[in-house]
Amino acid sequence: MANQIAIFDTTLRDGEQTPGVNLNMQEKLEIARQLENLGVDVIEAGFPISSKGDFEGVRAVARQIRRPVIAALARAVKKDIDRAWEAVQEAARPRIHTFIATSDIHMKYKLRMEPDAVLRRAVEMVTYAKSLCPQVEFSPEDGSRTRPEFLYQVLEEVIRAGADVLNIPDTVGYSTPDEFGALIRGIQKNVKGIDNVVLSVHCHNDLGMAVANSLAAIENGARQIECTINGLGERAGNAALEELVMALRTRRDYYRFQTNIVTEQIYRTSSLVSSLTGVHVQPNKAIVGANAFAHESGIHQHGILTNRETYEIMTPESIGLKKSQMVLGKHSGRHAFEERLQELGYNHLTADDINEAFRKFKDLADKKKYVMDDDIEALISTELIQIPEAVQLEYYHISSGNSLIATSTVRLSREGSTVEEAACGDGPIDAIFHAVERATGLEVTLKDYRIRAITSGKDALGESTVKVEKDGKIYVGRGISTDIIEASAKAYINAINRMLYDVRENQNGQIETIETI
């Protein structure tokens, strides 16, 4: 359809390249399932050549997620394309996405290649990718800073070579909406064969204009938009999927375009990605921020009570926020719990998963008077989407006070043995972290620590997020409990478990330093 915009989600590729984000295969699968529920048209599942772990993650998504196109990124290099095809060949609708830089500054200083050589490489690798995969997407990296005449030439040649999608990246977020719209308009006017392919854009947010540039591209002929949940991505991130989609929906009178996105799944998708990546959404973030539908001013409150449209241009329900939540408690039965899981979208859980979730729910219900939807989602995302626990917390004790040196004792189990250690620290959290380090014999650097209440009230479930660094790599750990000290200890141990898991998974894998669009 001429007014249909395809949504290409690159949360699992560009989004995972956000500093400090490191998703394991189970987490990638969980996000991919939710992206499928959300209705995205294309999932870029990763960059298979970058590591063994990323290859396995892309292949798992290709095998299990069937409705969307599953794309894998590859440089215009034969070994990259081979690895990408190996990862996605079992997908119902596979795509290879290959790229090479075309701007003068990138060709001269990064590639050290002449324009003619770049053109030949682009054509050769698109031809090769097309010989393997039925769908091929090509991106001229740094396209927005590429000389228009050379850009047109490259695009014409890769269309002849078999490219199905041409993606124009604003790689460093340099363009303005007028400039970027004119670039897309120029491509439509000057590139032969452009009517036979899908024109796409990929905008970065370095100047805060990624969404505006993407919308300008749509107005000038782009029909696929590359974006991420919560605007995740390298540096300042990418165009935020939720902002683009809700702009098209809310201002349909102006844009007159539509997507396949089930907008009622937006909030849940945002929350899941935030939880699994450890990158929390700022309160004033458009669409999904905590304040997006909050009103404190008396004038605003009066207007909302009289007519919501006075200060709300979209409803909370349109993104999946409910005014009232189903409340479960310790007397709630398994049937009610399973029904609630279905309503929340957890249709893929196995019987064992449901049994474990119900056990965790009952444990929590003994500590809290009411268990809210947010509590249940936290249990699922934090407790069930896990890597193998090489280290487990069996017991902890804290001694602390305003006139005492904080001391912690922990007992950990690891590979059948039990270790007990004690340590002091600058407060109870610092003390328990030091005790865990001594018990595991592992030294890591704490880079970030956060605690937040998932729901309100004095019995609220607390979620702790910990980021630690080891050998230059960041690992994110999460823990939940009604006791924030226990949640913190769980998060720290979870980060250590991720580090141990990553070492095991990647010890035989090849890891490269790679440039991306």
Explain this structure.
Helix content is 41%, strand content 20%. It has 517 residues and is of the alpha/beta class. It contains 17 helices and 14 strands. The protein has four domains: 6-277, TIM Barrel, CATH 3.20.20.70; 293-321, no CATH class; 334-384; 391-506, Double Stranded RNA Binding Domain. The chain has helices at 25-38, 52-64, 78-88, 104-111, 115-132, 148-161, 177-190, 210-219, 241-250, 252-255, 266-277, 298-306, 334-343, 351-367, 373-384, 428-440, 484-506; strands at residues 6-9, 42-46, 69-75, 94-101, 136-141, 165-170, 198-203, 224-227, 391-401, 404-414, 417-425, 445-453, 462-470, 473-481. Helix 3 (78-88) links the parallel strand 3 and strand 4. The strands form three sheets. An eight-stranded parallel beta barrel has the order 1-2-3-4-5-6-7-8, surrounded by seven helices. Strands 9-10-11 form a three-stranded antiparallel sheet, covered by helices on one side.
**Beginning-to-end CA distance, first to last residue:** 28 Å
- Give me the Rg, rounded: 24 Å
What is the CATH fold-level name of the largest domain?
A: TIM Barrel
CATH architecture type of the largest domain: Alpha-Beta Barrel
Poorly predicted ranges = none
- In DSSP terms (H or I, runs of 4 or more residues), the helix count works out at 17
Kindly estimate the percentage of residues that lie in beta strands according to DSSP: 15-25%
Per DSSP E runs of 2 or more residues, the count of β-strands stands at 14
Residues in helices, as a percent range: 40-55%
Spatial shape: globular
Provide the residue-averaged pLDDT.
Answer: 90
Count of domain modules: 4
Q: Based on helices, strands and strand pairing, what is the structural class?
A: alpha/beta
Give the CATH superfamily of the largest domain.
Aldolase class I
* Largest beta-sheet details: 8 strands, parallel, barrel
Strand order across the biggest sheet? 1-2-3-4-5-6-7-8
CATH class call of the largest domain: Alpha Beta
